[in-house]
Amino acid sequence: MLLPALFLSVLFGGDKVVINEFAYDDTSTDDREFVELYNPTSKAIDISGWRLEAYDPTTTNPAYVIPANTMLAPGAYYVLGSSLVPNVNQVVGATNLWENDTESILLIDLQGNVVDAVVYESNKGHWTGDHVEGDGVWGNFTSTEGLDSSWSRMRDGFDTNNNRDFRLLPATPGKSNNQPAGVYIDNFDARTSGTNLTDFGGTFKLPRVIDPTVADTYNPNAIVASPQGGNAAIFWDESGGGNHNMLLRDGTCNVVVEAWVYFDTTLRPTAELESWSLGVQGTSGTFYNFPDPSGTLGFTANGNTGVTWTYQVTDTAATLYLVDHNDGGEGAAAKTNRVVIGKLTPTTGWHRLRLEVSGATVTGYFGGSYGSTTTGTKITGTLSAPAEGGVYISYREGVATNANARPFTCDQLSIVPTPFTGKVDTTDGTATKTTQGTPRMGTDGAPVIDNGSFRITGVGLVPAGTSLFGFGLKYTTPFDLSSIGGQAGSFLYINPLLVIGLSADANGDAALPVALPNDPTLKGAFIDMQILDVDPSLPVSLKFGNSRPVRITAG
Questions:
Q1: What is the DSSP letter of 268?
Q2: How many whole angstroms from its chain centre is CA 331?
């Protein structure tokens, strides 16, 4: 064991029941809503009497209580929803089971502890409280009938105590969210024009193969063939509005994406605009609400996470931006905000576009030779919170005539993940509440070698209070804190080699910044950690609430 191990690359996992997937709004009548729970542990867990609560500050919402004698087996799912949801275990109503605006979903055990929480549509309002993890799920959502999608954990049980863990995927209630690992490479020439690209999912439409030189139903106007020649792919909803497409592959932190991409730099008429994003380490919202990388348009509902090449054409400029979107928040209500790493002004035509992410380092290439790292315009930056996430392509138009649009159009698309190992486990143990919330420990992004902005985080803490962040090795037998005046059921799970006192902010959040060393010899080392949260209002002599223990293993 080496203490710096907690600073390196991870594959996040969990060891508690989690909210694994959910859908709260769909087209037409809201009658396909659901929440899926998942047990990632190696033991059965009795969830009898647990409550799934929906909360916002202004509305009293129903709490759905899980029936008696409900055991959730290892690796099993439990679905609450309407009778129309496949694999539903507990029918809790017919329609409108959860609100279609800012809301939190809380999973609460028999002792009143918040086992897991997710806040959605955070762009419409942000509140304090122990149920806010990161910026929440920022973007808006509707599941399209016939192309059902959901907010899904990147893989089953993936939980870093940051709602950035969720991405849009095809809905799979009662089944695994997991996607196959591997590369995606296609020049589309062996495919028939007009057919769908089924390696991608979509919120309204799947991407399609086109002959770029022919205008038709799916290609709004004819353009020249790419330097590769032959067919190309187009990503949009030809009926108008926004659309989000996600690569159906396992998420990754390190990846290289490259393609020939067509840029139309014709300025839009007054008040019109178009935008697309090619993103990694993340997701976007169903509608791909317009981003605002220039900071001049006033949009705050986009929801992109991770890092993107984002192209935007308005009535005044056509600009390509390299953007770090962090956890997806935008505007004054966000905990994190997007950061523009660089920008440039393209010319009309096909250009090579490449996006490389390795740990906290992002490098974008515009122009030059396909596959080259020595030609073209190069922009390099450091991500504030690198994390695992998906590869996605989103497009939205705000134009009067779709025939004048140029959605994201590419050829010779190559998406190649690069190795990323290690893990963070929320290990066996029980969190004990304070009078203010349930302490939870996690990380802000992936602890990757040479990441100078990595942080250990605590949420659900006593606002403006003091917390002890302990680091060491896990006890074989936890120390019962009730034996020295602590709360019943409160345990110290680690033998701390290092204890750091931190003050929580007014929201009950605290973070320990750690500059990650560039030392590959640390791979495979690990450390255990736990929070003891001081609460003077507890009616015991040892006034602590505690988080579950967390182990970080270097990768």
A1: P
A2: 18
Write down the architecture of domain 184-417 according to CATH.
Answer: Sandwich (2.60)
Q: Are strands 90-91 and 77-81 parallel, antiparallel or unpaired?
A: parallel
pTM of the model: 0.78
The pair of structure tokens assigned to 52 is 């799934």
Task: Give the CATH superfamily of 18-170.
Answer: Lamin Tail domain (2.60.40.1260)
pLDDT of residue 429: 85
The rounded distance, in Å, linking the Cα atoms of 488 and 468 is: 19
Average confidence (pLDDT) over 509-519:
76
User: Looking at 390-525, which runs of residues are DSSP E strands?
Assistant: 390-398, 408-417, 423-426, 440-444, 454-459, 466-480, 491-503, 510-514
Q: What is the pLDDT of residues 543-554, one digit of tens each?
A: 999 998 988 766
The rounded distance, in Å, linking the Cα atoms of 60 and 56 is: 7
Hey, where are the domains in the chain?
Answer: 3-7+422-553, 18-170, 184-417
| CATH 2.40.10.10 matches 3-7+422-553 | no
What does the pLDDT look like over 338-369, one tens digit per residue?
Answer: 999 999 999 999 999 999 998 788 999 999 99
